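Take just one protein record:
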Amino acid sequence: MRLVLAIAVLLWCGGCKEPGSPSHPAALTFTTGDFDVAPAGETFECFYTNVITDRELAVGALQTSMSATGHHLIIFYSDTIQEPRHFPCDPMSGHSAGNPMAGWHWLWVSSGHNSDGVHFSEGAAIRIPKGKQLTLQVHHLNSTNATVTAADTVEFQFVDPYSVRFYLEQFEINDEGFKIPPHARYQRSTQYTMERDLQLVLFFGHMHTFGARYQLERIDKSGGPAQSLYDQRWQPSYKWHPPLAFYNTPSTSQVLHQGDVLRQTCEWNNTTEAVLEYPQEMCVGSLLYRIPASPTDQERR
């Protein structure tokens, strides 16, 4: 993996193979470096790191660590390569055109200032494609009256791509067309037709402060009754820590088939004087699913 090393980007690659080997780097640790968290409020900061992939990588485990004010950290990769930098970023602006986060692809999210990690089951990994730049969004809450210096860290543990049996990937169902009238409850449903079979692993909904309920239902292509996959009476704290629904055991396993319809329903309670639209409010479903590693995947490496 090619790295343009600079301050605040560290590489540990014990056990790396010689160039041209079909193997992989062992691990990668990178940090934001020091940045300021404003007093008596919250800070969202985005980072273009110095880490650019020169091959496809398979992440088998990851660990994050945030400073004491840390609330959550989201790891992305970007389609476009930019000079390493960091800047305030508004989470309300989503990933729409013109946003500096446009072209960022979600890899993982962790929460809290304590060290947070995950180790995927044997044979499973998250894929980072070749030619991508790693990027971060961090959220910090400072309850003091003084500026605080923070620094957050991410460590990837890589696995041999030839050992990967399936990859974990993510896509979103995003409704941007709602208009919530002032002082009103409002509900809207949208549908998404599955274009191929997917083995569902994890799902969570995303709404903001005025969310009241989020639902996801599966309508199979035979026209049978709707099956509830996720149903939450929304709370303001779910904006950053939504309940997670796991489908990774034999009793909870779910396969979404080509032609099945996912129906997403969001309900809001707008207590303001204004019409609320995207991205002030949101109605988003995030699915993590697994796909088999194919011979083509191996050939690409």
